[in-house]
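Can't paste images in this forum, so I'm doing it all in text. The chain is below; anyone willing to post the predicted structure tokens underneath?
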Amino acid sequence: MIPVEERFLKYAKIDTQSEEKSESCPSTSKQLGFGKLLVEELKSIGMKDVDLDSNGYIMATLPANNNGKTSIIGFIAHMDTSPDMSGSDVKPEIVKNYDGKNIILNKEPNMILSPGDFPELLLYIGQDLIVTNGKTLLGADDKAGIAEIVAAMEYLNEHPEINHGKIRISFTVDEEIGRGADRFDVEKFGADYAYTLDGGQIGELEYENFNAAMASIKIQGRNVHPGTAKNTMINSMHLAMELNYLLPHNSRPEYTEGYEGFYHLINIKGEVEETSLRYIIRDHNKEKFLQKKYHIQECVNFMNKIYGAGRVSLELKDQYYNMKEKVEPVKFVVDIAEQAMIDCGLDPIVKPIRGGTDGSRLSFMGLPCPNIFTGGHNFHGKYEYIPIQSMRKAVSVIIRIIELYGLR
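Text version of the structure:
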């Protein structure tokens, strides 16, 4: 059996960055290339009905060995990495027997992974960490999840004495740009319940996530020569700053935690003539989510009242909703995952996701889908790392979840 960390190290070196501006599916052809590699690996470990569709989605089956008397369970991870940082030339490195001190990722420039900045590093003293070389992300989000699912399926294929029902797995595309569930065929997948492997720290278990929307704002200015601009020029960038000031200062990501929602300005591009802004709006509470959307609309209305109708335009688009609404009626799927973690010697960390996963949307598409840890930290950046022992434990948790369903 190939160790889970070896699979991950191989996957991490493959560029699968998604592209938000692309209109194709998948958004980048390199995801398809990775998918073809995974198809061959799944066939080599004995998976059945291995399929890579034209949109890049992979599905495969581990047949039941108990006459199919239990629920069909699914496990899902995504192939793409963040569009915000290049996924090419990733060169992961291993720090063996971490001693609790600073880790020099790269001397030029002075890139240091420090417990002073990231105190959770101290949880892994004595363990082996996979880190970046200080120049790229690592891609544990979510190639660690893929490696863990593949390793668990390989183990179960090699240990037929473990009683289980039919298991379905899927690897999706474009999750990082919010499209991972767009063309996911729930009926074809055929699972009763599923789990995404897309969480962080070891022990994390999540079945609540943000309600999410995107607000795209355009502000039309009027550009004239600054020497004759009095009472004539309308600087759209100044209007953008005024509008941003109308949003509550303490409702930004850097000032919120837990169940607190936020407005997050993720992009601003402007000149005197025209400025565009993009915000993401997040809240776990549905009523507060609606209030936030109403407030940003009122801010736009106020600007138009001051500067003239049509000066500021707003496009609001919901992205996903809190899966809790769909998972709570079948809460036993969370309880089983929690028990699996306990049986594997872990203290479950049940908490809300301050973000979303494929499981958020899949739950509303009829597939209740809580999220469990991969073991990684500091996703999407140069300080990303993952303990090898956490990855191995994730494999054990997947196997134990499957065993517990076999006992129901």
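The chain has two domains: 4-208+322-406, 211-320. The CA atoms of residues 188 and 243 lie 46 Å apart.
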